[in-house]
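Students often ask why we bother encoding 3D structure as a string. The short answer is that it lets us treat folding as translation between two languages. Here is a chain of 147 residues written in the first language.
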Amino acid sequence: MKALVQRVAHASVAIEGSQHAAIGPGLLVLLGVTDTDTAEDAAWLAAKVAGLRIMGDADGKMNLSVLDTGGEVMVISQFTLYGDARKGNRPSYIQAARPEQAEPLYRQFVAAMETALSKPVKTGVFGADMKVGLLNDGPVTLIVESK
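And here it is in the second language, the structure alphabet:
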């Protein structure tokens, strides 16, 4: 499982021209699932992301987690994180899990994030054509993998 984590001032997702969800300061997580991922990967990665100390403290240093700041989190499914573009110009997505495997693991990750944060997490719609907008804060962007 792979998460592209961005510290944001705000983020939103629109589906079919209408805003579906939005957050203020916090984390935007683009989540990719591969065919070898399990529920344990989802739980581990959610705890890791929730605890990342990438939020600014009173001195502007990255010493706090989104748990510490009470920031919001949005999770968007993104199979293209497992795109392999080493050969040719068209990425291969063979490493991405099929939807019937990926969607339950995506939902488990979201549930684990909600448990870790003790509050709801905003999401897109799995498999939908989404338009994601964000104001990257820093910018701070990390890739975190479960394996």
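Translate back mentally: Residues 74 and 122 are 5 Å apart (CA to CA). Keep this in mind for the problem set.
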